[in-house]
Amino acid sequence: MVHLTIHLGSEARIGCPIYYRWMYPIERFLGKLKSYVRNRSRPEGSIAEGYIVEECLTFCSLYFSEHVKTRHNQLGRNELDENILNEGLNIFNTNDRALGKREVKIFNDDTLIKAH
């Protein structure tokens, strides 16, 4: 497999990082532009209008008050809200809900001994 590392290095030197040569980001962007089309007889105007509308809404959403949730003022996936005081370790605090019916089981001494 030594030859693979040699080829990858020369390929990166010739064509820059592979991300810039992928078609996937371009295809996603074109799919987004195609979703703006409402009038199939004039797709260019629909795309331009949809793009301008999205840009205007994004710009205006930056100036909403703090309690209005937009994609610009939401916490990131790994960020914690500083207003919430957590007691104990953070790894044991969850914000999950159980699926299904809640069920309480009480184990007797024999079952606990068998479990250990």
Q: How many structural domains?
A: 1
Instruction: Give the helix level as a range of percent.
Output: 40-55%
What's the end-to-end separation, in Å?
48 Å
Q: How many separate helices?
A: 4
The protein's oligomeric status is: single chain
Structural commentary:
- The protein has helices at 2-15, 24-35, 43-61, 109-115.
- It has one domain (2-94).
- It has four helices and no strands.
- It has 116 residues and is an all-alpha fold.
- It is extended and about 75 Å long.
- The model has no long low-confidence stretch (mean pLDDT 77).
Q: What are its keywords?
A:
single chain, 116 residues, mainly alpha, 4 helices, extended
Brief synopsis:
The chain is mostly helical and 116 residues long. It has one domain (2-94).
Question: In terms of topology, how is this protein built?
Answer:
Layout: H1 2-15, H2 24-35, H3 43-61, H4 109-115
